[in-house]
Design goal:
Length: about 700
Amino acid sequence: MSETAYAPASKLPAQLPPLREELQLHAAAPYSDGSPAWVIQDPVNNRFYRIGWLEFELLSRWSLASAESVLSATASETLLSPQADELEALYAFLLHNQLLTIHEINHTRELVARFRASTQNRLTWLLHHYLFFRIPIFHPADLLQAAKPWTNWIFSRFMALTVTALSLLGLILTARQWDVFVSSFVDTLSPGGLLAYMLALAVTKSLHELGHAVTATRYGLRVAHMGVAFLVLWPMLYTDTGESWRLSDNRQRLRIASAGIITELALAGLATLAWHLTADGDLKQALLFLATTAWVMTLALNLSPFMRFDGYFILSDALDMPNLHERSFAVARAALRNTLLGWNEPEPEAFPPKQRRAMIAFATATWLYRMSLFIGIAIAVYFMFFKLLGIFLFAVELAWFVILPLWRELKVWHQRRNEISAYKKRLTVTVAGALLLVALIPWRYQIQGDGYAHPAQIHTFYSPLAARLLEKPANQISVTAGQPLFALEQPELAYRTSLANASIDALGSQLRGLSALPDGEERRSILNSQRALHTAEAQAQADEVARLVLSAPFAGILTDLDNELAPGAWVGQHKVLATLIGLEQWQAEILINQDSLSRVSKAASVRFYPEGQRLFPLAGQVIDIERVRTNTLPHALLSSQHGGNIPVIPNPEGLTPRDTLYRVRVALSDKPDTLKILRGTAVIEGKPESWLVSALKPVLIILLRELSF
């Protein structure tokens, strides 16, 4: 290659400051395009920086001291043609990350100013770092290295197959007893149970981090330090495995990144199997805590690539794309500005169209996920502290994580508003106005709720006394109102009736013979009193006998007849004999949430969709609305424990809905072709309401409630 004359770059010093002597350079896995890569290790700060071929060649000749010499030597000795601005970018990178030995007073002043800027506002640092901060405790490298021979069995193929098989067995047993597993999990949702879950979380995350440390040590890396990380003020163990960037084998980095998740999954699988094999008691409860905590935390948190947890690093290593978040954000930000505002924003990096669309989709999903997560964290922070401090911290979190990033982007839009074309301005205003109009139009009128339909008339026949069955009807027959159905007898009752009648006859004979006696009139009043007493007793016995003849109070179908009962058999008191169902009118009981209560009115039309019969709804009208919260489910089949959609909290009095629900009674004009109770979903025609009002109303209710001291 012919030599090229290079002029010194204007932003570079006359003499390039030397690199720090303690820096180390390691070969890394090549980039996805096949170009070589290296990693600069800063052992003082325990940081790693990945560089490409051009940066490596420039750093290899950094000792030449002058920019012109470095550029000329690189161009003549390699196939590269570096430019002055590329060397300026490398110098700025080295200077920013403090990888140079500083000798000039201006650079020293810059470092001092940067240090002061990072420490000048301790209150700001405290507000933004109290949710997560780390405290190093000890350096475990020697201990992990000594334990390495004792931990190699963990990585054997036999161990992997054994744990996988046992975990699958535990999952199979859980699938067969899913209702029992879920009900056991729901039973633990109490203050004591939540504390146990937090302790199980600490144990699980500690083993998670130990998995990273042991795996990193296996591949010859030095675990710099271990300590305690505080996540929302909850302590858990953490391990620094930053040296994984030294590994040139991408698969080894993937194993280190996924070691924590694999550890948690193994713990969850083994705890799930042990839960099935353990008798009821404290140990079984502890295994449930470990199993559910490990499964939930692994699947819901650690595998998520939207935060800088294991899932993110696994995805970054799998795609061989370091700084995936920042790079995808830059691509998506440029695409947003170009599409929405019509700017000619240059692409931060050149990607194929398919990969570019994937990065934009990933960035969008990450933004939405983080917004939801940060709002949730802000709400959690509010409830963790007393009200005044909670409100302040809630506002800080919401402003810092949600409002401020949006404000910064909108500020850029405002500063560059002259670059927006008139067409894009009109289009943006039109779309924004249309969306606002759609949000304000009160067209949200349908209200959905879970419930069940049942006949309005249901009567259960039972024996009023311990008696003998004389007659019974057939099952599933139509009966008319007043039709006798069951006849029973009570021998002792008949005996007492005969004794009362005999006493009445005897007293009547005595009264007829009193006229011939001198004291007959005196005894007449006594005998009349005794006769009246026996007459009342006989009438009471007759009423009891009449109760033993059970008649239909209304017309309907007789069901649930006990076929084992035969004439002549004895039945106990309050023994259920059968159920009579009236077919003339059906009702439905629907449970709706609190924000829908004000939009429901009597006589509103309703469509009830039985479960599994979405094409055949039953029409009806609202006849009653309860204004008091439902403390007990009207029927157990609505609960999540019995296949319904309503989460419940078991208590001695029944099943209490977890959420605030209100009961609405509906008279159905359509009748189903079945006698069974039907579970389903109802759609009630409510008062119209706009989407914006619907979204803001619960927020305003909560604000008014929480701001009242």
